[in-house]
Amino acid sequence: MVKRWRATFAIGCAAVAGVAIACGPGFLDGISGGHVDGGDEAAPPPPSDAGDDAPLGCVSAVPPERPDAADNVENVTMLLAFEYIRADTQVDPDASGPPPKGLDLDRTCTCTAPQDSCVRSKPEPICDGPNGADNAVARLLQVASAAQVFSPTFVTDAIREGRFTILAELRGWNGLPDDPSVTVNIRLAGEMDRLDGGRERPRFDGRDLWAVDPQSIFGGDDAGGLDCRNAAVQCQALVFDTKAYVTGGQLVARPDPSRPVRLTIPTTSGPIRFDLADFVLTGALSAQDGGSYRLDGEIAGRISAEQYLTMVANLRIGTLPICKSPLFEGGFRPEVCDARDIAAAGKDGIGAPCDHLSGAFSFGASPAKAGRVVLQDAEPPPCGDETFRCP
């Protein structure tokens, strides 16, 4: 697969001369074929003897367990906005934060376990990262970044320009390192709310006012203009976990997997839209001056390969949609299809096909406010309504 991709990419670069694409030596070194999820810096750990409940092949990278503690007085509620989101796992730091480590979503350490968690279309496996971490998306984003479809910091750039963020609300926390029962609500923001002279760009000082994306709340299509600061307005999140918890200062939330987080991220190459299913949020809560808190951690989940492929096809290189470029059939489609490493949520270990991509993203979040619900203008996809699929 590596040889085919290198050859077709070279043909594609020649065919779209004049488009700014990095085709230099080493472009794909270490990116494609039989390697470790989320980068090649580390090999999977040796098999584990942790017992019958351990995942096959290694000590699994999973969130810490719920604490055995009393559910004390609930007195802390906070809304936190993501300041950065980092997807790539390159060694060199970028302008965001630390690279994500990922979670073992399928509880199987591919390449060290006797069998995989899903049925692949090709025999060559994609080995998990350390402790079975699943993160196929990081590798694909590194391919797109190297091809200059967008920069490695494209999500963080959108946040810092005030065009997108994720809002995580923590309710019912006792303020202690251990709390066995809290509620986490996840909403999206599509832009800064300019109400009452609001800011154009965030400063991450607790006073940023973000406009709530209607696609992330119940009844959102009919909620345009509602002010989520009003106690009489629910702005109820579609994605929530009423059984989240804090253990050792670590927040763990795993909402209903049937309600994926639907992300729409603006980029210079077009909007990126996908559903992150089996959504998991983990992060360290730390006290700040003035009695506020921040949250630093990771989100992880599964993305349909078909949806991811359609999203890639509708991005642009310069003014040309990728679906109309030789790079699509010659490189991007086979690269995405060959990267499928996981089944849909709830179908691990039952012989289901590997038709999803695992992903992990690091983040840092600080206090903010949710403002009005603002309807977003949807940009028509340049490739039309076509859904792109793997062979």
Write up what this structure looks like.
Helix content is 14%, strand content 27%. The chain is α+β, with helices and mostly antiparallel strands. It has an eight-stranded antiparallel barrel with strand order 1-2-3-5-6-8-9-12. Strands 10-11 form a two-stranded antiparallel sheet. Helix 1 (2-15) runs antiparallel to helix 5 (326-338) and helix 4 runs antiparallel to helix 5. The longest helix has 14 residues, at 2-15. It starts with a helix and ends in an 18-residue tail after the last strand.
Shape: globular
The SSE string, one letter per element, is HEHHEEEEEEEEHEEHEE
Largest pleated sheet: 8 strands, antiparallel, barrel
DSSP strand content = 25-35%
Percent of residues in helices: 10-25%
- Pairing-aware structural class of the strands and helices? alpha+beta
H/I helix tally: 5
Order of strands in the sheet with most strands? 1-2-3-5-6-8-9-12
How much is the average pLDDT?
82
Tell me the distance between the termini. Answer: 15 Å
Low-confidence stretches at least 5 residues in length (pLDDT < 50)? 1-36, 38-56
Keywords:
391 residues, globular, 13 strands, 27% strand, two-stranded antiparallel ribbon, alpha+beta, eight-stranded antiparallel beta barrel
Please outline the helices and strands:
Blueprint: H1 2-15, E1 76-86, H2 136-146, H3 154-160, E2 165-173, E3 179-192, E4 209-212, E5 239-247, E6 250-253, E7 261-265, E8 272-287, E9 293-304, H4 305-313, E10 316-317, E11 320-321, H5 326-338, E12 356-367, E13 369-373
Parallel strand pairs: 4-13
Antiparallel strand pairs: 1-2, 1-12, 2-3, 3-4, 3-5, 5-6, 6-8, 7-8, 8-9, 9-12, 10-11
